[in-house]
Amino acid sequence: MDLQALPVVQGKYNLENYEDTCANFDWSDTEKQFSWYETGRVNMAYEAIDRHAESFRKNKVALYFRDDNREEKYTFREMKLLTNKAANALKTHGNVEKGDRVFIFMPRSPELYFAILGSIKLGAIVGPLFEAFMEGAVKDRLEDSEAKALVTTPELLERVPVEELPNLKSVFLVGKDIEESDTIIDFNKRMAEADRNLEIEWVDREDGLILHYTSGSTGRPKGVLHVHNAMIQQYQTARWVLDLQEEDVYWCTADPGWVTGTSYGIFGPWLAGASNVIVGGRFKPETWYQTLEDFGVTVWYSAPTAFRMLMSAGDELVKQFDLSELRHVMSVGEPLNPEVIRWGLKVFNKRIHDTWWMTETGAQLIVNFPCLEIKPGSMGKPIPGVEAAIVDDQGNILPPNRMGNLAIKKGWPSMMREIWNNQAKYDSYFLPGGWYVSGDSAYMDEDGYFFFQGRVDDVIMTSGERVGPFEVESKILEHPAVAEAGVIGKPDPVRGEIIKAFVALLEGNEPTDELKEDIRQFVKKGLAAHAAPREIEFRDKLPKTRSGKIMRRVLKAWELDLPTGDLSTMED
Ligand code: 6R9
């Protein structure tokens, strides 16, 4: 059963009239907000922090931080000085300069944000790594990007094979009693003694800002490079879509290891001068509701898996909290089920607004604006200044209600500029006519609303995290008992999809439950907990093409009891 379109709720939104804005909008209107417009030079960290520290927002809280051990807050002025100090420490002790890659690999903490913004103030390119990554995943990324410096913790350092990374010259450790050496530097100590004044590195709009590694269906994870110019769209969507206003308290639940945690956990909200809540630690429904109540969160950005987990924690729990400040709720990362929207209406009395975008796009592209009617099941409409369409494999635009490739006309401000060291991969995203092809299939209805249908490729979205089957298969293949492995996403009511692996064993190995668990642990330790298959099924042989590629499509058909389709390329 579908919900009827949910009407606009009365309110004063930053975007009041969608149609008019689309007709008259020009990105150069937004560019005028930034220093670049006057000086020709810019720096994301200046625009996100220092600019406010030099304005009426000086003593406004920029960052509220909480985890199991710490509760702290920092004003924009304090953030400016602390990020200056972080920059000075990185420069003095790590020789970090413009264009260098600095990786940040640690759980959420205020220092993580000082380190990211400090690196950006030096013009360095930041590579954020999710804390759950294990040695293999960490090494791949540091190696591919030739990272020069790393900020991490003593606990996580065990997963960094420093000796095998010749380009990695300095490792800054955030922790207690750090013993310094040629490569190891005590981040807190060096920050404390660093100068609080800094000559910011003014860069060009097209200079590198951030490198997010993400997964495709083939090959190793790829480094998606974004540039400072992304601020134009991140700022504009923070106004239009997040609808941030001066008095808002904003909470984005994503970790900065993923793009949502940087574009909308750091850049967007701070470009808009908002108070930003950052919460560390593991997901617990009680803690999340407590966060909403204690900080008086007004604008909240999360993901369907999280909503579904809250939903399964029951309606009695949510009633114990005062969530009356909450005024605007958004979702990203996976399809937002109408059922979740219905639940949101019931327990928060709020419409949950879906937003669609990707690591590669740098910022939101198709969304349900607060000023639009919401059609449950739809991701919404393209933001003004962006052209979206459904195209066929040749780049021809398809009419309404026809399913095809969700594509965006090249040239939006926050688009990725490079796949690190891989021009061919970058080029493979585009079709004739200047269409960027997302890898998602969708259709558009006659009112211009877009509806997500699935991935065109084999990428798995599990709990909102994007996992490439190839990376998991490669890891499983390293297990001494394994001959072949094929990995697919299996539909799951809470997590969207779970990772399922089909495995053929080398001769002499018994297909036991212990071995399944051993393979699971092997992937968990070698790659990351969220990439470990929740289900493993042993088969004597896996379906392969004549060129030896595992046919994941056939595995999926086995799993879902569907017809296997055309098998003419199968080996025998
Ligand atoms: C921001 C982010 C991108 C992929 C994307 C699509 C899926 C994102 C969605 C959605 C349905 C939405 N996705 N938003 N699917 N409805 N509103 O998630 O980036 O990690 O790169 O994932 O996520 O399949 O192609 P990323």
TrEMBL record:
Q: Pfam families this protein is in?
A: AMP-binding, AMP-binding_C
Q: Which InterPro entries match?
A: AMP-bd_C, AMP-bd_C_sf, AMP-binding_CS, AMP-dep_synth/lig_dom, ANL_N_sf
Q: What is its EC number?
A: 6.2.1.1
Keywords attached to this Swiss-Prot or TrEMBL record, sorted alphabetically, are: Acetylation, ATP-binding, Ligase, Nucleotide-binding
Q: Where is the AMP-binding enzyme C-terminal domain?
A: 471-549
Q: What Gene3D superfamilies does its record include?
A: 3.30.300.30, N-terminal domain of ligase-like (3.40.50.12780)
In terms of PROSITE patterns, this protein maps to: AMP_BINDING
Lineage top rank: taxon: Bacteria
- Write down the PANTHER family for this protein, in alphabetical order: ACETYL-COENZYME A SYNTHETASE, ACETYL-COENZYME A SYNTHETASE 1
Name the UniProt record assigns to this protein: acetate--CoA ligase
